[in-house]
TrEMBL record:
InterPro entries listed in its UniProt record: Cation_efflux_TM (IPR058533), Cation_efflux_TMD_sf (IPR027469), Tmem163 (IPR026765)
Pfam families to which the protein is assigned, alphabetical: Cation_efflux
Transmembrane region(s): 21-40, 46-67, 79-102, 114-130, 151-175
Membrane topology value: Multi-pass membrane protein
Location in the cell: Cytoplasmic vesicle, Secretory vesicle, Synaptic vesicle membrane; Early endosome membrane
Protein name (Swiss-Prot/TrEMBL): Cobalt transporter
SUPFAM superfamilies: Cation efflux protein transmembrane domain-like (SSF161111)
Residue intervals of the Cation efflux protein transmembrane domain: 26-195
Predominant cellular place of this UniProt entry's protein: membrane
Family: Belongs to the TMEM163 family.
Keyword tags: Cytoplasmic vesicle, Endosome, Membrane, Synapse, Transmembrane, Transmembrane helix, Zinc
């Protein structure tokens, strides 16, 4: 590899690290914001999205380890932990969303939650695009795949935003637990994918 190629690769690696650190920072702040908003509004969707942000932090840490060449064994263990976290998130969402629908509990309005999920959707879409491009340039499937996880995180933010907005504007209280079921589907799919890949 020429000196120019090495310099280009080093620049791309720095960009990859920056994108992951930005994702980590946003989600760390997001956990606090979402916890406050979820408790105030008693929103299943906001609580679930907050837990999803915690999982996204784990996924970003995995990529930082991989970009640092820490080895397959450590990455394998980290991915299994993320799979377990997704499974626990799915259980929580299934129980809470079902209880809310059965009891007919009306979550409160959450202007803060609406504002944060709207911002999060935009930020995650931008980060996902950057990770996908950088991962392709580095020929790094891990960074590209995590870019897809970030894209899905943005889509989930949009789904939660829709549920919160419908509840606030039209009084469709059941939109909140339905958004929780969307998160449930995603969490179940991700956990299954991780454990199926683990047994291949």
């Amino acid at each position: 590899m020429s000196t120019a190629d090495q310099a280009g690769r080093a620049r791309l690696l720095r960009r990859g690290f920056l994108l992951e650190y930005l994702t980590l920072g946003w989600n760390v702040v997001g956990i606090v914001v979402l916890a406050i908003a979820a408790i105030a509004a008693r929103s299943v969707a906001l609580a679930g999205f907050g837990l999803d942000s915690l999982i996204e932090i784990g996924a970003s840490i995995v990529v930082v380890w991989e970009l640092s060449d820490t080895g397959h064994a450590r990455r394998h263990r980290a991915l299994r932990l993320i799979g377990i976290a997704f499974a626990l998130l799915a259980i929580y969402l299934a129980v809470q969303s079902t209880l809310v629908l059965i009891t007919g509990y009306r979550p409160g309005h959450s202007p803060g939650g609406i504002a944060w999920t709207a911002l999060t959707a935009i930020v995650m879409f931008l980060l996902a695009a950057g990770k996908t491009r950088t991962g392709a340039a580095l020929d790094n499937p891990v960074l590209r795949t995590e870019g897809h996880v970030t894209l899905v995180d943005g889509l989930l933010a949009a789904a939660v935003l829709t549920g919160l907005t419908l509840n606030a504007t039209l009084g469709w209280w059941w939109a909140d637990p339905l958004a929780g079921y969307l998160l449930l589907y995603y969490a179940t799919r991700e956990a299954r994918t991780i454990f199926e890949d683990d047994h291949e």
